[in-house]
# Entry
Amino acid sequence: MSARDEYLLRAAELSALAQVETYLADKLEYENLARSYLRLAEQAERNDQAYNAAQKSDRDQIREQATDDKHDDQ
# Structure
């Protein structure tokens, strides 16, 4: 399970707790925590996208260098 999915799951759990909580202070705290976990999930998704883009860029550079080296050898 990805970090994003784990954060989303925790946000859902906290939201469910907020729904059944009768003590207002605790209800508000659960809601705040749920929103925080949603933000973490969004950040984790952005991090994954940036990491994947960097990995693709690295692979592209390696392929380009290999192609250049091949042409230099000929």
Remarks:
- The chain has one domain: 3-73.
- The chain has two helices and no strands.
- The longest helix spans residues 24-73.
- The CA atoms of residues 30 and 53 lie 35 Å apart.
